[in-house]
Amino acid sequence: MMLALLASVALAPAEQTSLLIVRHGETLANATGRYNSKTINTFSEKGNAQVARLTKELGNQRFNAIIVSPSERALRTVAPFLKATGQKATVWPELYECCTGRNKRMDGNGKIRMGAAFALPKDIAPLFRIEPGHEKLIVSQSFSDGVMQVRQGARRLATEFGPNYGSVLIVGHSGAGGVLMEILEGKTTFGKKHPENAVPYAYELVSSSKFQFRRKS
After folding, report:
1. Do residues 19 and 185 lie in contact, with contact meaning Cβ atoms separated by under 8 Å?
2. pLDDT at 80
3. How far apart are CA 123 and CA 24, in angstroms?
4. What are the angstrom distances between the C-alpha of 52 and each of 41, 70, 89, 91?
5. Rounded distance, CA 130 to CA 6, Å?
6. Confidence category of residue 2, pLDDT binned at 50, 70, 90
7. Do β-strands 167-172 and 65-68 pair in parallel, antiparallel, or remain unpaired?
8. Beta strands 65-68 and 128-129: pairing type?
9. Residue span of the structural domain in which 110 resides
10. Angle between the 2-10 and 45-58 helix axes, to the nearest 10 degrees?
């Protein structure tokens, strides 16, 4: 069932944009609840198995575009698939993790703040491209900042791909990924969706004018 769903997304006709949204594999931080520089980007044993399973599920599928968060855990989740199929992904700072924590209150003061330039891990860097003007992280200091960040990413999706682009693979996170799903679904409250690690969520376009999607069952 999952393989058929994945195939239907990757082979979608060019006249309709379809999305496959994936959260990174489980990290030691996810598994233990201890978040630090050593655990946040290191896969757990389960996470390594998830990445291997995802790579197998995606198989030899070709996507019209593959975009990924600049975090190492997201990059390494999709890297084996890119290497196996000879495809290249574009790094989008808008997909970087945000919208986490317990405070999901929108205060109306969200801002886009640019941080430091990010670097790709040398061993997998050739699998990715960074577009000019998109070399820096976005620093979201509040939930409202995070929603602004993800909204910017959703607008970029609509602008760069539009309703007639074809299949797009998106690899990101739980907080930012969940809010992206909610925005694309046309929701008005955010922070309730939390995609599971390395599980593909397939979306089909339902409104070209609003660039809104619904999740396939």
Report:
1. no
2. 98
3. 18
4. 16, 20, 18, 21
5. 26
6. low
7. parallel
8. unpaired
9. 2-215
10. 60
Dist CA 185 CA 73 (whole Å): 26
Q: pLDDT tens digits, residue range 152-188?
A: 999 999 999 999 999 999 999 999 999 999 999 999 9
Structure tokens at 111: 């801002």
Query: How many Cα atoms within 13 Å fall on the side-chain side of residue 154?
Result: 22
Vertex 20: Cα angle to 15 and 21 (nearest 5): 140
User: What phi-psi label fits residue 72: left (phi over 0), alpha (psi between -120 and 50 degrees) or beta?
Assistant: alpha
In order of 24, 63, 83, the CA distances from 76 in angstroms are 8, 18, 11
Q: Which CATH number do you get for residue 11?
A: 3.40.50.1240
In sequence order, the 6+-apart residues with CB closer than 8 A to the CB of 195 are: 21, 22, 23, 174, 177, 178, 181, 201
Q: Are 90 and 65 in contact (CB under 8 A)?
A: yes
Identity of the residue numbered 169? L
CA nearest neighbour of 54 among 3, 123, 127: 3
Torsion on CA atoms 110, 111, 116, 122, rounded to nearest 10: 60
CB-CB neighbours of 203 under 10 Å: 21
Q: How many Cα neighbours within 13 Å face the side chain of 53? A: 15
Q: State the chain's maximal CA–CA distance in angstroms.
A: 45
Q: How many domains does the chain have?
A: 1
